[in-house]
Design a protein that fits this description.
178 residues; mainly alpha; 2 domains; three-stranded antiparallel beta sheet; 3 strands
C-alpha cells in the first residue's frame, strides 16, 4: 500500500511539473518567438467600464465589472427573481442614457466572459445618436467610426458582425484630440 501511495504521489508530481509548468512555459516561449508582441494579447479584446458616461459607447453589462482577471458569466436562470430585477435595472439604465427606446438584447444581457467588447450594430446605431449629440460630432462621422470598429462574422460565416466598443471609444477620444 505504501508503495502504491508513493507511486501515485510521484505520478501526480511529475504530471504537475510537466503539464502545469514545463508545457505552458514551452508554449509561451514558442508563441513569443513566433508571434512577438501579438503573443501578449490585444487590449481591444476586453471591454472597458465607461461608468455609464454618455460620451462613450456602453459595452454589454458584466458580471465581473469588466475584470479580465476573473471572467465569468452571471448564470441567471429564466425564473430567478434576481434575473428579473437585473434585467429591469439594465433596461432602465439603457433608457436613461438613450431615451425611451427598446434596448436590443445585447444591451441588457451580459456576455459569457463578462468582458466581451462587442455590441450589435443595432445597439451601436441607437447609442450613436447620443454620443454624437453629447460630443458635438456629426452623426455621419460617428457612423464612420462605428463602421471602422465593426468586426465581421467569424470565419466569414459564423455569428453576426459586432461593434468593438473598446476600439470605438478609443477612436472617439482620438477624434476629440484633433
Amino acid at each position: 500500500m505504501k508503495k502504491d501511495l508513493i507511486s501515485a504521489l510521484v505520478a501526480v508530481l511529475a504530471c504537475t511539473l510537466l503539464l502545469g509548468l514545463a508545457y505552458p512555459l514551452v508554449v509561451t516561449g514558442i508563441a513569443q518567438v513566433a508571434f512577438g508582441a501579438k503573443a501578449d494579447g490585444d487590449p481591444n479584446l476586453i471591454a472597458r467600464d465607461v461608468h455609464g458616461s454618455p460620451r462613450y459607447f456602453q459595452p454589454r453589462p458584466s458580471a465581473t465589472d469588466w475584470s479580465a482577471t476573473a471572467t465569468a458569466f452571471a448564470n441567471r436562470g429564466p425564473n430567478q427573481a434576481s434575473a428579473k430585477a437585473f434585467y429591469l435595472a439594465q433596461i432602465a439604465a439603457y433608457r436613461r442614457l438613450n431615451g425611451d427606446v427598446t434596448p436590443p438584447a445585447d444591451a441588457v444581457t451580459a456576455s459569457a466572459s463578462g468582458v466581451d467588447p462587442l455590441i450589435s450594430q443595432a445597439n451601436a446605431r441607437i447609442q450613436a445618436r447620443r454620443v454624437a449629440r453629447v460630443r458635438g460630432i456629426p452623426l455621419a462621422r460617428v457612423g464612420a467610426l462605428v463602421r471602422a470598429a465593426t468586426d465581421g462574422r467569424s470565419l466569414g460565416v459564423l455569428g453576426e458582425p459586432g461593434v468593438n466598443t473598446t476600439k470605438l471609444n478609443r477612436a472617439l477620444d482620438a477624434e476629440a484630440s484633433r
